[in-house]
Amino acid sequence: MSDPKGRVLVIAGSDNSGGAGIQADIKAITACGGYAMTAISAITVQDTRGVHGVWPVPFEAVLAQMVTALADIGADTVKTGMLASAKLIEQVAETLSERAPGVGRVVDPVMVATSGDRLVEREAVDALSSELIPGAALVTPNAPEAEILSGKAVETVDGQRRAAEALLERGALGALVKGGHIGGPMIVDVLQTHHGEWLFESPRIETRHTHGTGCTLASAIAAHLALGRDMPDAVDAARVYLIKAIETAPGLGTGHGPVNHGWPLTMSQDD
Q: The domain spanning residue 256 has which CATH number?
């Protein structure tokens, strides 16, 4: 990437509770030193206990947000999150192909919220596989999402590897199959690209404050890529950021609470 500026365009849904979605994306990208722009794809009504409503944004409005941001400011990385319908995915993919052909994509295949509520149509999964995963710089599924996308059982590290391999075979340039949903005292995230494999391990943090962790990690990776880091370094730095955000979660809500996206700011003030 020549002269990276840290610009990240995020195409995702809004979470009014602030823990996930566009709100988490903006916080994470900013905290990691990037510049966040947004194209809001849906308005969700949710809290730490669950999703209470989803209203899709009209396709024309989503695409207009993308086009204006790309035409004026530009992007070093694009990150996609909740895209609820096959038609929207197809139109987003077409717009990116036309307006940002050389920009790497971080695809977070958001399908189900932390609370267990389904967020996308079933047909959207097929569109995601055919339209956005091929050519993506990185796909970041958790174990259940990886099973759906790859058709492989993901219950062990070997399963994560097989799923990552399948995603590369489907055209992704990189796949990070996360292990948070797999039991055990250690969490292992498996990164594969056409240049090799990397395993990232960390102790499991016993907490209910995990709302928006997938959005947060993917956006942190996108920010570091946009700043010019290579893929393994970007994933490593993003994991360090997320782990600290979980460890210092503010304890809000009565369900799956949000993480502390702003912890780097607090640390800089302490210094």
A: 3.40.1190.20
Structure token pair of residue 155 = 């219950």
Read off φ and ψ for residue 43, nearest 5 degrees: -105, 120
In a domain, 2, yes or no: no
Tally of domains in the chain: 1
Looking at the chain, how many residues does it have?
271
Host domain of residue 210:
7-270
Nearest CA to 9 among 59, 67, 86, 90?
Answer: 67
| Residue 121 located in a structural domain | yes
Phi, psi of 157 (to 5 degrees): -60, -40
Question: 3-class secondary structure for 59-103?
Answer: HHHHHHHHHHHHHHCCCCEEEECCCCCHHHHHHHHHHHHHHCCCC
Q: Amino acid letter at 162?
A: R
Query: pTM above the 0.85 mark?
Result: yes
Catalytic residues, which ones?
178, 210, 212-215
Per-residue pLDDT tens over the stretch 16-53: 999 999 999 999 999 999 999 999 999 999 999 999 99
